[in-house]
Each structure stands twice: as C-alpha cells, then as structure tokens.
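Here's what a typical entry looks like (Retrotransposon gag domain-containing protein):
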Amino acid sequence: MSNRLVASLTPFKGKEDSFEFFVKQINDIARLEKWGEAKKILVLKLNLKDEALKFLVSNPKIEEISDFDSLVKKKLKEKFCKKPNFEQAQRQFNNLKQKVSQSISDLAEQVRSTTEKFSNPNNSE
C-alpha cells in the first residue's frame, strides 16, 4: 500500500498554493505507514520538481538537515509560502461587513477565519 500512496502524491513544483497540501499528504502517509524522519525527508525530496527542486539543489546546507519539520518550516515554507502583509490584513478587515441575510454567527466565523489567516499564516494543519 505504501508505494501506491507515495505514487499518488502530487509533486511540489514551488507554487505557494499547493505547499500546505503537499506537506499534509506526506505527513498523513507517514503517520499511516509509521515512517521515520529519514523516509519522510527522502519522499519529500523525491517529490520536489521545477522551482522547488532547483531551490533544493542550489542550497547544499539543506542536505544536512535531518529533521523533517525543520526542513519544511525553516527552509521550504520560508521560501515558498507567501506571508500576508499588514496592508492586506487591514484591507480584508475593513471589507468585513455583515450582509443583509447573514447571521451574526456567520459573520463571527468570517471574522474568526480572517483573524486566523493573518495571525497564524504559517499554520500547516
């Protein structure tokens, strides 16, 4: 089963919008298959393509990292995850208004999710 799961991974090419999903896939398979750090890192590296692969190859220090979370959070996420800036956050909060048919709880959920997005942009799960 493990090989089929790994084969079903969508390779990460360096696009910001797919990084979180890519890491979640690896973590889910690793948890299910009880992988160690070395196997998680190997599978991650084997599934990097295009810009992400170029980044890996051009940074030899990355090869020395033996902790999956450090590799993901400190190197790849830093490079490939767009961090929202203050102006974006301010604009989104200024645009939050209750619509005519929107309940208070729906508005509160919208405020909560916007707050989460900007207060914890690096949350991967």
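Residues 86-118 form one domain.

More examples are in the samples folder.
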